[in-house]
Amino acid sequence: MTRFLLFWVCLLIIGHKAQAQRPTYRPVAAGLNGSAARGCAETHLRTSTRQELTTPAHRRLMDRYDVKYYKLDLDIENNARTVGGSVRLRARAGGQILDVLAFELHPALLLDSVLVNGRRTPAPRRESGDVSVTLPQPVAPNTLFDAIIYYHGTAPNGSSAAIGNALDTRYVPRYDVNVTWSLSEPFHAYEWWPCKQVLTDKADSTDVWITTKNPNKVGSNGVLTRVVPLPDNRSRYEWKSRHPIAYYLVSVAVAPYLEYVNYANMPNGVRVPIINYVYNQTALNDNRAEIDRTSGFLENFSALTGAYPFANEKYGHSMAPIGGGMEHQTMTTQDGFNFTLTAHELFHQWFGNNVTCASWEDIWLNEGFASYGEYLSLQALATPEAARFWMDQTHEQVQFRIDRITGVLINTPGGSVRVPDTTSVGRIFDQRLSYKKGAAVVHMLRYLLHDDAKFFRVLRTFQATYAGRTARTADLQRVFEVEAGRSLGGFFEQWYAGEGFPSFSVRWNQVGGNLLLQTTEITSMPSVTPFFETELDYKITFDTGSSQVVRLRQSQLVSAFSVAVAGTVTGIELDPDQWVLNATGPIVRTTALVDIDSEESTLASVSAFPNPCRDFLALADLLEPVEALVIDAVGRQVLRQSLSPAASQLNTRPLASGLYHVLLTSSTGEQKRLRFVRE
Fold first, then answer.
1. Residue 639 domain-assigned?
2. Which residue has the higher pLDDT, 491 or 7?
């Protein structure tokens, strides 16, 4: 409860202190409490009930060609999920003769015909969403070919036997408007158009032509080259993009939109149009102030990570009741606008769109960095207090979750940034791990380099090296290693592949001109990641009110340091600027700590018996009262009991059979960990 009261106090403080060259950003709950990442994650989860179903055999067939170009020429209205028309596919055959064309299309959509190089193919073979057609004339290796796929039908939705909502339509009561829009990430493009859903095969370019009734407008990727009037009060909107694009970023949004345009100014003098399709004048009045922040975000991101990659086309937004946002290339779909949501989706244009994760295992390269874009925007365009509060919330949301029934904070010790199950949409878009822990890892990489010039140079190098392509975590690691000048395998093993986070407790004492420190680390998932090697900042406060910060490396579970000081130390604060994802235990001064190499330890000789145990675990040689915390094999805190020399038996009856750790903490902050087995 204290944190939530602090939240509102911080908002009042920030409201008075916020200042920037642009209109002052006065933070609100939705700007700082993680709602941007939550909205982004829940948007995918609401839409994405399908698992990746393509069979390995079908994937091998699709891998036999490389997509170069898509042209969608479709009829879509703003009040229905019906879709029909044609998709043209231009591709290059691989190193062997291509005699079968394989792609994906949901079974709810009917195939009318398929032409390859102008010749009609035999009836296709369809198995679930997998479609394959035998070519009337095989395509020679390394040769370009064209296919045109004609189809029609009603896109599936979650209330039908077919699951999904990649093409959705809805009425928005507040603005009295109907909207139809697409959302294809991660496995859902096939629910509204025939395509190849393979991350590593980006199309080099696209055209999206949508015919609809007037007065509808259509938002999509790239540049609107023309609007063609057609009979029966209809128009065709012709959008063109000449940048590589992943299949799930191809988008449409159809409604009787009002267009609102502003601009961002690039360092090279280029003005990037920001084209916003909003529901109507009322929607513009409601959102104009927040929409206008977009240019500042775009200019800041360009200065930090390299010029906006689609500057020769545009950026923009299409409004839709999507429940959050989706980073469609050059034209994000959003249901509304707040500071962090708009910043998050825009930073995806670099991380996710220009450079796309090559596997859903590495979705943090998209979502972790986009979430960190929220923090970068708060740093540059809000206040230090707002940015710090955002990071505090991020760390808390990694370490805890709120029980939706009781409202109680529950410890959440495990889970890796790496996605082990890439068929699970829920795991891919896990807000705590892919978004929040991913952002915390980016922040720690910045701390690791200890030099913002190097950090942002890494981001620019990564963007330039993999522009228009896909990348894996190992690719990012290599770029960081160049700037760090050393291997970062241990860092990524701990924070990307590993699970949990460390907690640190500190015992300290001043002996003359030396500050003695003893820091003990425990981890939330010792069975997976038993130790996190990291540097930590210690803020040392003196009786004069002055302070200094020293940076020390935690290289073992218990690390000891001696720091020369010129004054009387009154207090220690660990990681004062919240750089490292960690929980802080007790920080206590103890006169027992008299030398860095030798100290009076009251717990050194404590041992546990019998081991294995049944009902009780006794502690031998316990000389003072301790707090005993029992942690199970997956890092959960399952039992807490106070013990003393007179009552030194731990009651293990509530525990199930298995392996446990017991952490003993004395009144002076000294700690010792023992392991035992409950039979």
1. yes
2. 491
Number of domains making up the chain: 4
Residues 79 and 8 in one domain: no
Shared domain for 270 and 286, answered yes or no, is yes
Neighbours of 165 (CB within 10 A): 22
Structure tokens at 135: 């070519």
- In a domain, residue 466? The reply is yes
Q: Give me the residues paired with residue 433 across strands.
A: none
CATH number where 298 lies: 2.60.40.1730
Instruction: Identify the residue with better confidence: 357 or 646.
Output: 357
Tokens of 151: 């189809």
Verify that 191 and 260 share a domain, yes or no. Answer: yes
Inter-residue contact 119 to 137 (CB < 8 Å): yes
pLDDT band at 47 (very low <50, low <70, confident <90, very high): low
- Give the residue from 589, 618, 635 where a domain finishes: 589
Which amino acid would we find at residue 517? L
Task: Please report which confidence band the pLDDT of residue 666 belongs to, taking 50, 70 and 90 as the band edges.
Answer: confident
Phi and psi at residue 291, to the nearest 5°:
-60, -40
Query: What does the alpha-carbon distance between residue 273 and residue 256 come to, in Å, rounded to a whole number?
Result: 21
**Cα Rg, the chain, nearest whole Å:** 29
Q: Of 153-162, 527-536, 541-550, 564-573, which range is least confident?
A: 153-162
Model confidence at 668, in pLDDT bands (50, 70, 90)?
confident
**337-349 pLDDT, tens digit each:** 999 999 999 999 9
**Cα separation values, 544 from 341, 540, 564, 566, 567, Å:** 43, 12, 17, 11, 8
The highest-confidence range among 48-52, 127-131, 620-624, by mean pLDDT, is 127-131
Pairing mode, if any, of strands 177-182 and 253-255? antiparallel
Residue span of the structural domain in which 540 resides:
502-589
Q: How many residues does the chain have?
A: 679
Instruction: Give the Å distances, CA to CA, from 9 to 20, 28, 383, 384, 387.
Output: 21, 12, 15, 15, 15
CA 418 vs CA 175, 230, 320, 635: distances in Å: 41, 50, 31, 18
Question: Whose CA is closest to 629, among 673, 657, 663, 660?
Answer: 663
What is the structure's pLDDT at 552?
97
* Rounded CA separation 320/678 (Å): 55
How far apart (Å, rounded) are the C-alpha atoms in residues 444 and 259?
A: 41
Q: How far is CA 646 from the centre of its chain?
A: 51
Q: What are phi and psi of 198, to 5 degrees?
A: -130, 120
Q: Examine the domain organization and report whether 163 and 286 are in the same domain.
A: yes
Check if the beta carbon of residue 627 is closer than 8 Å to that of residue 588: no
Q: Is the pLDDT of residue 20 over 80?
A: no
End-to-end CA distance of the chain: 38
User: Which single residue is written with the structure tokens 């495990």?
Assistant: 414
pLDDT band per the 50, 70, 90 thresholds, residue 616? very high
For residues 337 and 126, give the distance between their C-alpha atoms in angstroms, rounded to a whole number.
42
Q: For 180, list phi and psi in degrees, rounded to 5.
A: -120, 135
- C-alpha to C-alpha distance for 479 and 484, rounded to whole angstroms: 9
Residue 634: its pLDDT value, please? Answer: 67
The tokens of 644 are what? 């003393």
Which of the residue ranges 13-17, 215-219, 510-514 would you say has the lowest mean pLDDT? 13-17
Task: Give the residue from 578, 580, 601 showing the smallest Cα distance to 668.
Answer: 601
Both tokens of 269, joined, read 């003098």
- Residue 213, helix vs strand vs coil: strand
pLDDT at 238 over 50: yes
